[in-house]
């Protein structure tokens, strides 16, 4: 016999099958927690996607920068001996280009990154790289900010995304067999010209994203305010506190272009993933960034993700800050320091001292962690450079 439910029983069954208010509230609470967690992940995902995009574009910009520097005729004067023998030079030497710096014993004397050839006022004030210092008789070479913005002002865009900077160092001279030449005799011309200058130079390029906080007035473009002749708003800036503004450099407000900086660096020979940083005693007072205080330089150099280029041309990324105070810092880096690099002994190096190209003594970096850092050489075949000890004459082949 089929069982017939009363009206009261049917109502009770429907009540048992429904959700209570507490169950509904708990469900909403769990859903809210999930949405909050998802919301917290989204900014991180967007940031990682932007970093990945910047790295990809940064490589493209760095390649463009290399092509630009290689095609500047006023820089390409390195007196490189062509294959099969070199030409005979007279006593007349061109008065422009990187070759004239190689004739100066004081320029990059210990094979470190030398900022003394860059005009401080021009770079900090208008963003132009004017190469005119510390080489007797050299004609100035100007690389304007407009040429270092990407995309270029000639594009149909309203704002650039990146700006690149570069620093240069001397490579150790090499003899006809490709071995490093110790400069223990005075330079004479033209007899020793080819051997002493064959090694050429190494160039480090830093690509940075333009500060995202720059505000462009109505009717203007980012290009127009960055390239205006007076009080420009430069693409990457340092404020009066010597730290990045995040909104470019408003030069009328005593802000400056964020130029490359150098610090002394040392390696203890044991901890292959640790560099010790301190004040660069070789830096001059008239170089770009010389007014930035040491504590601020250390803060900028130890940012996670910061890229440091040592005086041997190796690129390191800061992974962790081990120690930091107003006078020095220790950072964990990647990749590890290569085995052929010897311990930093802390003794001054001279022009003819092989320690200058086998020890880490200096790093160069830019205030804002770059999207890309690239090192290349002009004037020598990388595989032909090696020191008498076989260390690599400053670095292993690129």
Would you give an account of this structure?
With 398 residues, the protein is α+β, with helices and mostly antiparallel strands. It has one domain. 24% of the residues lie in helices and 19% in strands. The chain has 8 helices and 16 strands. The chain has helices at 7-17, 21-71, 98-102, 120-126, 145-148, 193-197, 222-226, 294-301, and strands spanning 129-131, 141-143, 149-150, 162-170, 201-209, 233-234, 237-238, 249-250, 256-257, 261-266, 274-278, 307-310, 315-324, 329-334, 362-365, 372-378. It has a 6-stranded antiparallel β-barrel with strand order 10-11-14-13-12-15. Strand 13 (315-324) and strand 14 (329-334) form a beta hairpin.
Low-confidence segments: 78-94, 178-197, 381-398
* Distinct helical segment count: 8
Number of domains: 1
Q: Label the structural class.
A: alpha+beta
What general outline do the C-alpha atoms trace?
globular
Strand percentage lies at 15-25%
How confident overall, as mean pLDDT? Answer: 79
DSSP E strands, number: 16
- The ordered H/E elements are HHHHEEHEEHEHEEEEEEHEEEEE
Query: Between the first and last Cα atoms, what is the distance in angstroms?
Result: 93 Å
Gyration radius over CA = 28 Å
Helix content: 10-25%
The main sheet orders its strands as 10-11-14-13-12-15
């Amino acid at each position: 016999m089929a069982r017939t439910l009363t009206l009261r029983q049917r109502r009770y069954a429907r009540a048992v099958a429904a959700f209570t208010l507490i169950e509904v509230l708990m469900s909403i609470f769990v859903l809210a927690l999930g949405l909050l967690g998802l919301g917290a992940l989204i900014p991180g995902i967007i940031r990682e996607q932007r970093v990945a995009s910047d790295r990809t574009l940064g490589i493209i910009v760095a390649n463009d920068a290399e092509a630009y520097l290689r095609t500047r005729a006023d820089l390409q004067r390195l007196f490189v001996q062509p294959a099969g023998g070199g030409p005979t030079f007279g006593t007349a030497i061109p008065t422009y280009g990187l070759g004239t710096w190689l004739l100066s014993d004081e320029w990059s004397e210990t094979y470190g990154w030398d900022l003394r050839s860059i005009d401080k006022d021009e770079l900090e004030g208008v963003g132009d790289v004017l190469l005119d210092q510390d080489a007797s008789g050299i004609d100035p070479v100007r690389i304007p900010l407009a040429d270092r913005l990407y995309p270029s002002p000639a594009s149909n865009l309203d704002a650039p995304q990146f700006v690149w900077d570069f620093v240069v160092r001397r490579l150790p001279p090499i003899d006809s067999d490709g071995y490093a030449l110790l400069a223990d005799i005075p330079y004479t011309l033209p007899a020793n010209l080819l051997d002493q200058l064959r090694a050429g130079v190494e160039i480090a390029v830093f690509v940075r994203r333009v500060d995202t906080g720059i505000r462009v007035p109505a009717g203007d473009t980012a290009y127009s305010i960055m390239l205006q002749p007076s009080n420009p708003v430069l693409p990457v800036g340092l404020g009066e506190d010597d730290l990045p503004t995040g909104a470019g450099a408003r030069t009328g407000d005593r802000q400056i272009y964020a130029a490359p900086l150098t610090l002394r660096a040392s390696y203890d020979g044991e901890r292959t993933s640790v560099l010790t940083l301190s004040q660069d005693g070789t830096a001059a007072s008239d170089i770009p960034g010389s007014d930035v205080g040491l504590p601020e330089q250390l803060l900028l150099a130890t940012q996670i993700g910061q890229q440091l280029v040592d005086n041997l041309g190796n690129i390191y990324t800061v992974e962790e800050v081990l120690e930091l105070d107003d006078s020095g810092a220790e950072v964990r880096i990647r990749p590890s320091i290569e085995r052929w690099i010897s311990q930093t002994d802390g003794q001054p190096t001279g022009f003819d001292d092989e320690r200058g190209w086998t020890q880490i003594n200096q790093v160069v970096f830019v205030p804002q962690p770059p999207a890309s850092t690239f090192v290349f050489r002009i004037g020598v075949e990388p595989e032909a450079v090696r020191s008498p000890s076989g260390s690599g004459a400053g670095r292993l082949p690129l």
